[in-house]
C-alpha cells in the first residue's frame, strides 16, 4: 500500500524546463558544431595560410608589373617628346614654306595684272579689275567692319583634362554664321584671319582646328568685311549676332564688333575649277527629236 502523497510506482517526471535550461545553456547542435570545428581546426588553418600566401604573391606580382609598366612609360617619354617636337618643327617648316610660296604667288599675280593692264584698253582693264574684286581674286581696300571672336577660358584641368566640355569655344559653324550674316548685311569682301573668302571657299573643322580653304586658322578669330555703312547695323540685328551675344553672356566667349576704316583684304588663291563636258560618244536620247548629225537645214 502506498503512502499518501508519494509518487505512484512506474511513473517518471521530466525535469523542470527552467532547471534544465540553466543546467545546459548551450543547444546540442551548437556543441556538436564546436566539436567538429575543433577536430577540423588544423585543416582550416592550413587553408587560411594558403589563401593568404596566394593573395600576397598576387599583390607582389601586380606591383611588379605596374612598376615595370611605369619604368617603360618613363623610358619611352623622351622618344615621344622628341617625335612630337619633330612633327611640330615639320609643321612650322611647311607652314613657312607655304607662306613664302603664297607671297611669291602674290607677286606673280601682281606682275600678271600689270602686264595685262598694259595689254588691255582702259575700259576692259577696269571691268576685269571689278570682276576680280567681286570674285575675291584681287586685293581690295575700303571701310568696313571687324568681328572678333575668341574662346572662353578653359575650365578643364591642365593635368587631367577633367572639367567637362567648354561651351564657350568658337566653332567652325560660328565663323560660317558670321560670314553668311555679313554677306546678307551687304558685305562686298570678307576675310578670316587674312584668308579671303570666295564663292568656292570652305569653313570646316578638323578635330579641334578650324580650316579656311584647307588652311588652319587659330584664335582669336577676326572676320573682316568691306561694305556699306548700313552693314554694321544689319549685322548687329541679325540672328547670328544675337546668338553669339547670348553665348558670350552665358559661357564667357569673347564677341566684339567694331567699325574699321581703310581695311585691306588680300586676294584669294586661284580656284581649281572643273567643267563638265558632254561625251562625244554619248548616245542620243530616243524620241527627243535631236539628230546627232546636222540636218543641213538653215542654208
From TrEMBL:
Disordered: annotated segments: 96-116, 266-299
Superkingdom, natural source: Bacteria
Pfam families from the UniProt entry: DUF881
InterPro entries: DUF881
Family in the record: Belongs to the UPF0749 family.
Protein name: DUF881 domain-containing protein
Amino acid at each position: 500500500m502506498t503512502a499518501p502523497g508519494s509518487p505512484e510506482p512506474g511513473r517518471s517526471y521530466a525535469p523542470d524546463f527552467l532547471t534544465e535550461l540553466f543546467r545546459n545553456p548551450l543547444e546540442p547542435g551548437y556543441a556538436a558544431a564546436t566539436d567538429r570545428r575543433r577536430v577540423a581546426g588544423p585543416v582550416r588553418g592550413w587553408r587560411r595560410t594558403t589563401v593568404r600566401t596566394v593573395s600576397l604573391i598576387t599583390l607582389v606580382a601586380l606591383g611588379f608589373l605596374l612598376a615595370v609598366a611605369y619604368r617603360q612609360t618613363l623610358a619611352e617619354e623622351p622618344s615621344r617628346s622628341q617625335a612630337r617636337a619633330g612633327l611640330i618643327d615639320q609643321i612650322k617648316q611647311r607652314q613657312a614654306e607655304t607662306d613664302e610660296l603664297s607671297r611669291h604667288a602674290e607677286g606673280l599675280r601682281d606682275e600678271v595684272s600689270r602686264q595685262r593692264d598694259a595689254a588691255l584698253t582702259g575700259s576692259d582693264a577696269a571691268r576685269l579689275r571689278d570682276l576680280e574684286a567681286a570674285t575675291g581674286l584681287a586685293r581690295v581696300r575700303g571701310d568696313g567692319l571687324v568681328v572678333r571672336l575668341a574662346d572662353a577660358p578653359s575650365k578643364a584641368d591642365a593635368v587631367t583634362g577633367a572639367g567637362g566640355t567648354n561651351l564657350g569655344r568658337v566653332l567652325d559653324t560660328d565663323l560660317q554664321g558670321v560670314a553668311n550674316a555679313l554677306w546678307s548685311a551687304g558685305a562686298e569682301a570678307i576675310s578670316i584671319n587674312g584668308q579671303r573668302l570666295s564663292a568656292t571657299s570652305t569653313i570646316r573643322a578638323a578635330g579641334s582646328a578650324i580650316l579656311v580653304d584647307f588652311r588652319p586658322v587659330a584664335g582669336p578669330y577676326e572676320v573682316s568685311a568691306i561694305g556699306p555703312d548700313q552693314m554694321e547695323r544689319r549685322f548687329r540685328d541679325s540672328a547670328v549676332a544675337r546668338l553669339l551675344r547670348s553665348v558670350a553672356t552665358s559661357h564667357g566667349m569673347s564677341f566684339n564688333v567694331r567699325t574699321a576704316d581703310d581695311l585691306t583684304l588680300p586676294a584669294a588663291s586661284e580656284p581649281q575649277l572643273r567643267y563638265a563636258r558632254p561625251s562625244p560618244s554619248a548616245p542620243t536620247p530616243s524620241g527627243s527629236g535631236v539628230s546627232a548629225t546636222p540636218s543641213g537645214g538653215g542654208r
